[in-house]
Amino acid sequence: MSMAGNLRKVTSLGGVGGLRKVARLARRRPRVDLSHPARSPLGSSVVNCVTYREGVRTPAHGDLADTVERMRKTREGFVWLGLHEPTDQEFAGIAELFDLHPLAVEDAVEAHQRPKLERYGETLFAVFKTVCYVEHEELTATSEVVNTGEIMVFVGADFVITVRHGRHGSLGPLREELESDPGQLAKGPSAVLHAIADHVVDDYLTVTDSVHADIDQVETDVFSETGARTDPGRIYQLKRELLELKRAVVPLSRPLEDLATRPIRVVDPEIQAYFRDVSDHLLRAKEQIAAFDELLNSILQAHLAQVTVAQNEDMRKITAWAAIVAVPTMVCGVYGMNFDHMPELHWRYGYGMVIGVISVACLALYRGFRRSGWL
Fold first, then answer.
1. Residues 6 or more apart from 355 whose CB is under 8 A from it?
2. How many other β-carbons are positioned within 10 Å of the β-carbon of residue 24?
């Protein structure tokens, strides 16, 4: 029987009817894969709840509170409880059982937090921004390129609680990958924290590679023959989406540095070396984002310069044609005056001569402008 079906005592602690319903439903049906984005098909925020001893998944005996108490006495194993967008009522019993700080609980429920790492007594609270690339057939001025979510992680000596917000960033595959490596999982809750951090940062690198492809396409369009007609809104939209990615990546540097260098009781010293590797990957993602930002600035400036050059060329053409048209306008304007005594006014070949002079003058101006590149 899964731990999701043993949450009745937790719910009694917080008076949470929703979790009690989960327990009843879990007894009626086999455990379902609840890692799918959106809320649990069991109608609760609880996605999964599993105990591990020496890195191996173990069956549950008794309810969750008894299991936690037994592990705290024997100091063997830990509990991994996963939730998706819990409400205050759903989280109340769990917070009481694991003695979570109210400020951390408030952050976990409300979400919209910056990446950070905080310590509340013997509990570590970490916030990660998750990102995913939004596929699109063609980049437009309104295309969504980067979608973000959040994963909050409570880490204690004998428990890990993950709270996920957003419709992506499922931890189901990560859990299976960890369970295939009992040696790493045996290092305790900090191994789960490292795996989550590594998973999140790897997604950053994947998204930056996909954004790079969009930037390459915009760059190709801008420097094509029709580059001046490229919609600048596409470039600006990419910059906005890149800023969204930057807000997720850059603030995570300090928390990872603390996890990699500062001694923390709930973090196994062997795991700190792994956090240094994650920090290196994050640095690569930060450098890529900074380079993309500079590149987009250059592309936008190049596009504006192309537009200015195109406008100057159009103005030169308009000016050249206006100069050519000015010749017949001037001559015809002079001979259109109602005077009786004007040169060659009554000459038989006067009309032909005027037309010839106008044609020769216009042709000479046209050739001159063509030679100078104005036409």
1. none
2. 11
Q: What are the φ and ψ backbone dihedral angles of 224, each rounded to 5 degrees?
A: -85, 180
pTM of the model: 0.73
Nearest to 13 by CA among 88, 65, 77: 65
Q: How far is CA 295 from the centre of its chain?
A: 18
Per-residue pLDDT reduced to its tens digit, 328-371: 888 787 777 766 667 766 777 777 777 888 888 888 888 888 88
Give the C-alpha separation, 9 to 48, whole Å. Answer: 16
Q: What are phi and psi of 134, to 5 degrees?
A: -95, 115
Q: pLDDT (tens digit, 9 = 90+) per residue, 182-212? A: 888 888 899 999 999 999 999 999 999 999 9
User: Residue 166's closest CA among 114, 195, 130?
Assistant: 130
Hey, which bits of the chain come out as E strands?
A: 46-53, 56-58, 78-84, 116-120, 123-133, 146-155, 159-165
In whole angstroms, give the CA distance from residue 121 to residue 346.
Answer: 111
Half-sphere exposure of 77 (CA within 13 A, CB side): 18
- Pull the structure tokens for residue 203: 């997604």
How confident is the model over 25-84, as pLDDT tens digits?
333 333 333 333 333 443 467 778 888 888 888 876 666 777 777 777 777 788 898 899
User: Using CA atoms, how far apart are residues 305 and 298, in angstroms rounded to an integer?
Assistant: 10
And the tokens for 284?
A: 């690569």
- Cβ-contact 93, 14 below 8 angstroms: yes
56 contacts: CB under 8 Å, gap ≥ 6: 182, 185
